[in-house]
Amino acid sequence: DTAVSQTPKYLVTQMGNDKSIKCEQNLGHDTMYWYKQDSKKFLKIMFSYNNKELIINETVPNRFSPKSPDKAHLNLHINSLELGDSAVYFCASSQPGLGGEQYFGPGTRLTVT
Amino acid sequence: TQLLEQSPQFLSIQEGENLTVYCNSSSVFSSLQWYRQEPGEGPVLLVTVVTGGEVKKLKRLTFQFGDARKDSSLHITAAQPGDTGLYLCAGIGNRDDKIIFGKGTRLHILP
């Protein structure tokens, strides 16, 4: 059974488009995250949700909007995609909070052309 | 702003050799985690260290948390090709519980 799953695995799109990445965890965790990993493998937290409520919103353009319909899902919608948005996006979950082990999804490789 | 510096960034050594990876900061962390990431996959937690001076062993891997909880090291004994991967340290903020990752050490073990 997959603990944290993301779709799609790969996403290639043109500048200016709007796209969404979906994430689901079946671990029963209360906290979910979105991370961005750039080409140099630097992993940076973007958002953190605790039980559907936003608790961390790092300096991320407002073109990025997370949505949590329930505590098992945290989707990421990106408007007006730019070349610099190309990266691998990881969803993760943890329990009880940030001090706990982060369980990462397999990542979504986004390429903006 | 809290920063975690990892060194070296890249390390390529022969199978059987020993190596140490360092994770340093000027900030104090409540705990520190080490993750390993393989190509095309997400990071997987190896260990969490919480107490200053703590040493944890995972088979051939030895993790140490600095006495002041500002730094950590990962030592691998008799490295094997299966140890190849990206090693990331992550610190949990002492005051705000925020997590920050180091930039990683890319390790390649040659058979």
Mean pLDDT of chain A: 90
Which secondary-structure class do the elements of chain B indicate? mainly beta
Number of helices, where a helix is a run of at least 4 consecutive DSSP H or I residues of chain B: 0
Low-confidence stretches of chain B: none
Low-confidence segments of chain A, given as residue ranges, are none
What does this structure look like?
The complex is a heterodimer of chains A (113) and B (111). Chain A has 113 residues and is mainly beta. Helices cover 0% and strands 56% of the residues of chain A. In chain A, the strands form two sheets. In chain A, strands 2, 4, 5, 6, 9, 10 and 11 form a seven-stranded mixed beta sheet that branches. A four-stranded antiparallel beta sheet of chain A has the order 1-3-8-7, with no helix packed on it. Chain A is globular, with a radius of gyration of 13 Å. By secondary structure, chain B is mostly beta strands. Chain B is 0% helix and 56% strand. Chain B contains no helices and eleven strands. In chain B, the strands form two sheets. In chain B, strands 2, 4, 5, 9, 10 and 11 form a six-stranded mixed beta sheet that branches. In chain B, strands 1-3-8-7-6 form a five-stranded antiparallel beta sheet, with no helix packed on it. In chain B, a hairpin with a 5-residue loop joins strand 7 and strand 8. The radius of gyration of chain B is 13 Å and the shape is globular. The N and C termini of chain B lie far apart (40 Å). The relative contact order of chain B is 0.34. The model of chain B has no long low-confidence stretch (mean pLDDT 93). The interface between A and B is medium-sized, with 20 and 25 residues.
Keyword list:
heterodimer, A: 113 residues, mainly beta, 7-stranded mixed beta sheet, 56% strand, globular, B: 111 residues, 6-stranded mixed beta sheet, 5-stranded antiparallel beta sheet
Characterize this entry briefly:
Chain A has 113 residues and is an all-beta fold. Helices cover 0% and strands 56% of the residues of chain A. Chain A is globular and about 40 Å long.
